Protein: ATP-binding protein
Amino acid sequence: MTDPLLDSLRRAVESAPDDVALRLHLGRLLIEAGQEREAVEVAAALVALAPDDAEARALLLRALSGPAAATPAATPAAPPAATPAAPPERGPSIPPAPAVPGGIGAPVFDWSAAEEQVEDVVQPAFVDEAGQETTEPFLDVERPRVTLKDVGGMSAVKERLNASFLAPLQNPELRKLYGKSLRGGLLLYGPPGCGKTFLARALAGELGASFLSIGLTDVLDMYIGNSERNLHEAFQLARRTAPCVLFIDEIDALGQRRSQTRSASVRGIVNQLLAELDGVTESNENLFVPAATNQPWDVDPALRRPGRFDRTVLVLPPDTEARASIFRSHLAERPVEAIDAAKLARASDGLSGADIAYVCELASERALLDSVRSGTARYIRMEDLEAALGEVRPSTGPWLDSARNVVQFGDDDGTYAELRAYLKKNKRL
Structure:
């Protein structure tokens, strides 16, 4: 025989499935009516709907405990009998809870048995897939489309890159004759914002190789040994995608002088980097490892020995030809009118590539604000760029000052001869 009240509540729940209070009321009435199985289903669905609701959890507990715990006694509870009553036939086999000192005893049930009863009622929202390997690498491997033709000026830098990497790759017979290995490291150093990262990406595009960039945040980990493992995995990924250019940005952070630090973590990273560059357990053939730094004097000397980062290239602020090219590049997608890139290049001596990009940004902002005020969009003109040039000071000055101190007063074994010549030429030494 059906209960009209329960039927009405079931229909109400179907009409308002998110009504927590309505589900609570239905669940309690089902328990009182002895319909524990349906009560468990209602309570389980309610816990899934409101997992933080204490009444929902209590309802599920009552439903799982059977009719003995479902109906509270009308009179004060009698002292517990010497032999506990047998559990109801339809309820789960759940041991009674010991009384909590100073409080009311609460039933403690077997969670495994409970899960078996409700697993068909509500499915878990999350599935633990621990132990399953993923094929997705933790770093992104690129295929750059830029080449050295996209790098304006910097003929000396391009010549060094050609001698170190491009010529051996493009002439396999001569490479075999002279025993030139397709592996090696190259240290790019110079003021910030002068295009070291862009050069490394262009080198990968010129080689037709994949490009992988790592820095301190990709490697460093708070747990012992994880930083070394991350560095090893980066090299392994580069080896699997060879030919590959593995670019290490801010090498002075990953390869810091061990004599200047007491950190075991930093020492471990440097040791791991030395082992990876040497190819102790793996072949580094077709693996090119350029690195960039603004502070080459802070790089551990062991990283500078032959076979590692033995070739050093100074990347200076762009020359006149390069500055004109950078202006054209950053203005190419903007509405411009009668722009003289050569004149701008002559007026921007000492600016880095990042400085020139900022000049173009300021000029665009000036034209945009003027268009907002007038209500008519206009082109970016020379006057905008010249005004922006007047606001920007070279960001390379502080670096050149610190470099001068190292060259002049530091232990210089000829490593920075090119930098010394540049400083003398610009009357900074």
About this structure: DSSP finds 18 helices and five strands in the chain. Residues 196 and 289 are 13 Å apart (CA to CA). The first helix runs from residue 4 to 15. The two ends are 103 Å apart (CA to CA).
